[in-house]
Amino acid sequence: MNIFKSLLGKVWQDPNAAEVVKIEMGQLYLVRPGNIRSSRECIYNEAIATIRRVPALDHNFQLVITRVYEDGDQELLEDEDETDEERVFLISEELEFHSGVTDDEPTFIWRDLDGDVDELYEFVASGTNEPTRAFFETCMYRAMYERKFKASADNTKDSDLDQFIWQLALHVMSPATKARGKTGNRKSPKNEQNFGDLPSDTVDDSTVQPRAMPNKTPSAAARPSFASSSLPTVTSQEGHIFSWNLEIEGFVAEREEVIVAKIVERTPGNFNYWLIISDEDGDFVSDKISSDMNPRWAPKTSSLTWNYANDGRYDSWALQLASTEAYDEFKTAFAQCLWETLHGIEFRKAKPDEQAYVISSTTEDIEMHDVENDGEDEEEVETELDPDEASEEEEEEEEDDAVSPMPQGERNSQLTIGYKGDRSYVVRGNNIGVFSHSSDDQVKYYATISKISTPQGKEFKPQEVMLHDQDTKMVLKNPLDPHSLFSMDIERGKVVEEWKIHEDITVDHIAPENKFAQTTREQTLVGASHNALFRVDPRISGSKMVESQYKQYVSKNKFSGVATTASGKLAVASEKGDIRLFDTIGKNAKTALPPLGDPILGIDVTASGRWIVATTKTYLLLIDTLIGEGRYAGNLGFDRSFPANAKPMPRRLQLRSEHVAYMNHDINFSVARFNQGEGQEENAIVTATGQYVIAWDFAKVKKGQLDKYEIKKYEDMVVQDNFKFGDDKQIIVALQNNVLAINKKNLKRPTRNSLAAPMSSLHSRSGIVNSPY
């Protein structure tokens, strides 16, 4: 807790400073666990939280929540005899102060000493970063220390403050758990950890505020068509089952008693597996195991969360297993069944190192090689605590839509962003819209290149486009002629050359010769067919494929994407889900990473080659190519093969199931990209699904915080998005009928307000219960 020593010295040791620390933005709520109708009442819609010294009384401090009035409100309240402008709480152990998370926003929670015994105050510190939250919490504990011991907290150690961290018995409990303990005698499995205790990597404490427990219906409802008791069981474990309630924004228990979670094989031999939840009356939850479930595992809480699609709704469910052992066994069985479903063969037939690779991809707690905590925490805190000193560019910017007069009837299908000329290009049918990047960081319609056609005058709709030769050319793929590429002179707006590649080899994917080749006069590029990798050189006569730099595989690999590093090394993905790493074209891959089973839609790599992000329909797969042990430790997988027993541990970047429930549509990611720029380090990953642009904080992801993403919703469907070249803030977004730019800081943390469709179209009750197979 004393990680901010210099900052504490500034704000704590000045006895003349009335205010110790302040959080400038948040909301204050009163939480009444026993009152179902108004369990969470908003007291101040906008408020400031301050730790203040008590005048003329040493070693005493107050927590002060001050209401912030909107424009015009102050005048309206001047005529009132009594106003409620601030609430003051003497800081002491009795407050049982602790922190939590609500809708991914940090919160501070404490007892209402003037209210009922179970009433709580909650301050939601909207937009506050993690270092600032930790600093504020540390100041609270220091204030408690000074009041208790009547002495300065300047020389305290972390261990001196541990006594003030609110806890009950031997484990920390959320207020939800404490309140829920009054609801009745619930049967619990041995070593049970209440779902209200789950940390933020699965379910946030404060999103599981005390909820009314649903009662089991007295009469048996419709059961699945086939009783699971008659089917082969892969694994069976005890636990508790919860569902996300959209109205009260929290998980609630579907059954108070212990349930049995099973994985059964619906049709033996066909790899058709189902997740079944049963109670003493029989099966009441059933869901077919597939990647569309969006399964997410959390070892810290021995839990699985997933989504269930039902009649246009996407509900969120959570299963907490009774013990660590039960969790490990259930997770392994689930991963094996999912793999068999995707591959159509038995898991035991996979090689041992491939099996380990598959199982490791489901692990959430992660420690990356050589990733150190950065030293920016104090700077972040000081910036947030002194918002007036922030630069003007931190202010919210409005987005300007660049609506083009391009032909109607078609929709935007592709986006490519310029490297040299401050232009973006959007494919729409057989037309390409040209958009300029203005000085105010917006995009403006510039021109339309109409009626794309071959040199022979035959019109076509480009299937894939890539800028080339310092943005003076654009290479086009024509779906009607897969054995050729077409070169368009951008200044003339006309296709001027056809590059015939090979009469027996199709060009399914293209990539630059290296990560930044498009900023140079480099003429060659990389091509891939479904089972071959080759170099294309338009300067040679006849077929443009370089015969000496060509590698074909006998099997049908179904290559689905290729990406290059700054030094020209290649990462190639396939529809089967495997990834190959090459140091050069024409040779065997140095590393072949086995498939998880989901088709890879596209792939990107950092300039150094250290990190790869591969996109599947429902998750992004992040891979660290650094070899961590063995003879070639310290090399990358592009240069040397991984030891068989030390393959990298792939990490899944997923949307949390409760967020998907608010989005209320299936996940279908566009190809994810790192921000890129010569001499820049990648610090973000951007993708899209449906109406949402999503960006992961790559620095936090490397530290193991896999769900640190922000989001922006649009009225139209997002076709493709990517960072402006050389800029890690500006994102160019192509909607189906629009093009615009957005600053990454204008993306928001996913909450009910930033995600949800109108509540009238959402339902909290899921058809997963008692649904037939």
Automatic annotation (TrEMBL):
Annotated GO CC locations: cytoplasm; nucleus
Annotated Vid27 N-terminal domain residues: 1-164
The Vacuolar import/degradation Vid27 C-terminal domain, residue ranges: 410-759
Domain (Vid27 PH-like) ranges: 234-341
Compositional bias segments (type: Low complexity): 218-231
Chain intervals for the UniProt region annotation (Disordered): 177-231, 364-414
Biased composition (Acidic residues): 373-402
Comp. bias (Basic residues): 179-188
Pfam family name, one: VID27_PH
Bilayer-crossing regions: none
Name this protein carries in UniProt: VID27 cytoplasmic protein-domain-containing protein
Organism expressing this protein natively: Suillus discolor
